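Entry 14. Structure prediction run on the chain below.
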Amino acid sequence: MSEVNLLDKYPQRKRDISERIAYRTPDNLRRAAKFDWEYFDMKGCCYDGYIYDGRWIPIADNIIKQYSLNPGDKVLDIGCAKGYLVYELRRKGIDACGIDISQYAIDCAPTPVKPYVSVGDARDLSCYISNSFDFVISLTTLPVLSEDEIGKALIEMQRISRGKTYATFDTYETNEEKEKMLLWTLTAKTVKSKKEFIKWFKYIGWNGDYWWFVP
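Output returned:
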């Protein structure tokens, strides 16, 4: 279990907390929670317009290098959104597939990757047999679940992998960071300090790698 930044080359968005506070109306929170067009492509919402722009190319390279993946190795992306990471991994010879709870996002996937992405839920991975994947990853997805649901999802990710799993979490280290996080997030149900998360990972028996989102 290690802290690993696979997202070091992901474009960093300037985050205006004051604008986000103004956006946090009950109607907009409900829109975001549907994980539909509003969540991905409405101006001012979560992704603020999520299009293919090549940003996942270096992330795919990082994954392949960090986890020593070879052509033909099987990867599952849980919370794949529009499938852009799956797309880049497949272009590099990895047998990648993905699931996302959003039908809208799956419908928007690039044509070449549509056969390899489908609607699915991190809370139910029972359709996958144990040791199915060389690597299982979940980016910016698990925080929208309750703590209990995240715990079960992590253990399931571990079950269906061959020992290599990775996930990102919404976190903070200072009171100021905590306040910003709680003001920024529109969908997260589980936010902990880094120390709390690491202690909790050990408690539930998850031994995967992890990284953090801090606004």
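The domain at 55-205 is CATH 3.40.50.150 (Rossmann fold).
Filed with the rest of this week's runs.
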